[in-house]
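Predict the structure of HTH tetR-type domain-containing protein.
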Amino acid sequence: MLLVDALRKAGWQILEKEGRDALTLERLCARSGVAISSIYEYFPTMESLVVAIFDDFRAEARRRLVEELQALPPSTKLFDGIMLLLSIGIPMLHTWVKLDPELFVKSSHYDELVRLDLVKPEQYWTSMATDALMERFPDEVQVRDRAKARFLAFHTILALPRAMALMRPEYLAHDDTQELMARMIHALLANNG
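Done. Here is the predicted structure for HTH tetR-type domain-containing protein.
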């Protein structure tokens, strides 16, 4: 729907350029051209709008990851695929933490329920990413127990960046974070043991 798209686009522009505190009904109304009463109809709270914006943000990251994994040359190695995944996922997470740290903490509680398999979303970023890696590089995923390797990689990709975002957000921006994580994940997926 055009009205909802306009609200999401305007909300993202405000978040990105001015920060979470600037995302008010009045500013959203002025930027989007949508009446306040209509905003409430689709997004009863600013938090519900921010959640929708980040759902779109994650969906775009998923689409980009699949597209870029498929576009990699045949000679690409598993480690490079992992680095690609992390080069998309870690900055996405870092952006979210910077734009709305309070909502990130709240959503982390939900994400933890997902990680523990208590809530089952349709398209969870790390589940899709882990599967895409294992499908793209089947010859390099040399583990006896693929289900166990997938489980360990999934939880590493999901929980470790979230822990950094909650406790050490500066680590998300460090140059070596993605490579260190890639080494861990590669060892989980390429170990012959």
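The mean pLDDT is 85.
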